[in-house]
Amino acid sequence: MLATINELRLAINYAPVTMDQVIFHFIHRAWAVVVVALVAFFTIKTLKIRESNFLVKRTALYLGLGVFLQFILGVFTVLSVRQPYFASIHVMVGALMLGVAALAALRAYPGRPV
Fold it and tell me: Of 29, 76, 97, 105, which is least surrounded by CB within 10 A?
């Protein structure tokens, strides 16, 4: 199948795709599903706990919304055949969500007000 795809890509002057690229992209997308599930669990669990600190709840909400945005940007990146605008914003939001996740972990850790 990869040979057929590469024949079609060469016909429209696109570079061929390697199996390593296919595996890398599959792992990236599978990990995205895991991250979305974990963040959804964390966000819902945090928002349901009445005793949660306001800052922890707000950070969890931002994390949930940000990861949802990141997922949508990833879909747009794929559907737009990796347009640089979507891909760049996808990478920037990913970096921002890494920072927000670290902040959420620090704020959720007992005894460490941040």
Answer: 29
Q: Would you say residue 75 lies in a domain?
A: yes
The model carries a pTM of: 0.77
Reading the chain (114 residues) residue by residue, the pLDDT tens digits are: 899 999 998 999 888 999 999 999 999 999 999 999 999 999 999 888 877 788 889 999 999 999 999 999 999 998 987 788 989 999 999 999 999 999 988 888 877 655
Residue 45 belongs to what domain range?
A: 24-108
Structural domain contains residue 15: no
Residue 14 covered by a domain = no
Task: Write the secondary structure of the chain as one string of H (helix), E (strand) and C (coil).
Answer: CHHHHHHHHHHCCCCCCCHHHHHHHHHHHHHHHHHHHHHHHHHHHHHHCCCCCHHHHHHHHHHHHHHHHHHHHHHHHHHCCCCHHHHHHHHHHHHHHHHHHHHHHHHHCCCCCC
